[in-house]
Amino acid sequence: NAGVTQTPKFQVLKTGQSMTLQCAQDMNHNSMYWYRQDPGMGLRLIYYSASEGTTDKGEVPNGYNVSRLNKREFSLRLESAAPSQTSVYFCASSEGGQDGYTFGSGTRLTVV
Amino acid sequence: QKEVEQNSGPLSVPEGAIASLNCTYSDRGSQSFFWYRQYSGKSPELIMFIYSNGDKEDGRFTAQLNKASQYVSLLIRDSQPSDSATYLCAVNTVGNKLVFGAGTILRVKS
Q: Residue A1's pLDDT is what?
């Protein structure tokens, strides 16, 4: 049982390059989320998808786009990477209630 | 004012002591609350969920909730070096979105 799988685990980009972070869950959860984590800032919500076919902005959506490809997969795209997007990115899924979120292992992204 | 506030620490306790971690939140309408543990370089993992005022115990962990004071706490009894981690408080908001505090670093000294 893999849970939530994120790829890649590490990435270095040059300013202006684009990339897509992939996330897949095998728990049949309806909701999926992308967070970024920066030192001293905690986890901040970038985008979320309450169900297949819907996406909404979170607290810090600028510079990002998302696609909910199907119930399992939720990708995050950086169209033109900036050094301010250097961070650790976590994908999570949830069915609500007391089980909270299940997180992927994270992607450590550095933009130079 | 941040929606969820935690003392960043580090909080240092000796092995075997009780560690007390605190969290306050601003949205009086919040109904459910979570504590996550995050080891360095790893992803957060859920350790406690609470939604009723009072205490909830699970093994060495006790979560305490006071909605009138907008305050959630986590007590770790008989602290072990393996408890050394960052503890994240999270509050559930509209649309099942979790808002996280910045986390408290706990160090348990053997």
A: 61
Please state, as a whole number, how many other Cβ atoms lie within 10 Å of the Cβ of residue B74. 23
A108's tokens: 């450590």
Question: Over 80: is that where the pLDDT of A2 sits?
Answer: no
Nearest chain B residue to A105, by CA: B43
Q: Which residues of chain B have pLDDT under 50?
A: none
Flag whether residue B43 sits within 8 Å of chain A, measured between CB atoms.
yes
Find out whether A106 and A89 touch, Cβ atoms under 8 Å.
yes
The pLDDT > 90 percentage for chain A reads 90
Q: Ramachandran region of residue A28, left (φ > 0), alpha (ψ -120 to 50) or beta?
A: left
Q: Report the alpha-carbon angle A40-B6-B65, nearest 5.
A: 150
